[in-house]
Amino acid sequence: MKFFIDTANVDAIRKAHERGMVDGVTTNPSLVAKEGRDFKTIVKEIASFVEGPISLEVVSEDAEGMLKEARDLNGWIDNAAIKIPLTWEGLRATKQCADEGIKTNVTLCFSANQAILAAKAGATFVSPFIGRLDDVGHSGMQLIADMVQIYANYGYETEVIVASIRHPLHVFEAAMLGADIATIPPAVIDKMVQHPLTDVGIERFLADWEKVKGKK
Ligand code: G3P
């Protein structure tokens, strides 16, 4: 399972990268706004140490505007994946990007039918937002199961990025379903390593070692 880091915070990405957990990065306008810094500067900093795909989102709502932005963003770094919303205009832009060899991440996917359209448009990645589905009483994880099955049925190469992850159980369940990628907020990655029995185990080993240490 590949891990992307879902943030535009360079320090957090660097920390996860030093831990060997970064296969890519996803950003969106809200995450960039949180940083309060110039978008291009942030992107260049991330690309200076992240080799995997870095998702950069367009903000136009028409296909021509999206394409113009996509071509521009794609020129910023070598490893861009252009995030495009799942609308008819977005799908037109996605198809054109595919024809031009520009990688895409079709975002704001909330249904299996939308996911089929994204794959048919030639999306490199598609991002189903599971936390936001859970928020409105639908099963985000059922959507992941459906997408993984449908893409396997037809051999689509589009990769599923499980997005809007809120807690470690989301990552575990997505892995059980065989999703290609989880894009994980830094706080959730931090939680994944935690287990009280690990802490207790270390404490006991160290205490026992104190008893024998130095004995000949
Ligand atoms: O990758 C998409 C993600 O950032 C959305 O997460 O928590 O705003 O639903 P959230």
How is this structure best described in words?
Helix 6 packs parallel to helix 8. The model has no long low-confidence stretch (mean pLDDT 97). An eight-stranded parallel beta barrel has the order 1-2-3-4-5-6-7-8, surrounded by seven helices. It is built from eleven helices and eight strands. It has one domain (2-214): Aldolase class I (TIM Barrel, Alpha-Beta Barrel), CATH 3.20.20.70. The chain has 216 residues and is of the alpha/beta class. SN-glycerol-3-phosphate binds at residues 6, 26, 28, 127, 129, 131-132, 163-164, 183.
Can you give keywords for this protein?
216 residues, TIM Barrel, eight-stranded parallel barrel, 11 helices, 17% strand, binds SN-glycerol-3-phosphate
Number of helices: 11
What string gives the helices and strands in order? EHEHHEHEHEHEHHEHEHH
Instruction: Report the portion of residues in β strands.
Output: 15-25%
> Largest sheet at a glance?
8 strands, parallel, barrel
**Chain-averaged pLDDT:** 97
Quote the CATH topology.
Answer: TIM Barrel
Class inferred from helices and paired strands: alpha/beta
Under CATH at level 1, the class stands as Alpha Beta
The CATH superfamily bears the name Aldolase class I
Distance between the termini: 47 Å
CATH architecture: Alpha-Beta Barrel
Stretches with pLDDT under 50, minimum 5 residues: none
Shape: globular
In what order do the strands lie side by side in the largest sheet?
A: 1-2-3-4-5-6-7-8
Number of strands: 8
Helix content: 40-55%
How many structural domains can be distinguished in the coordinates? 1
Bound molecules: SN-glycerol-3-phosphate
The radius of gyration is 20 Å
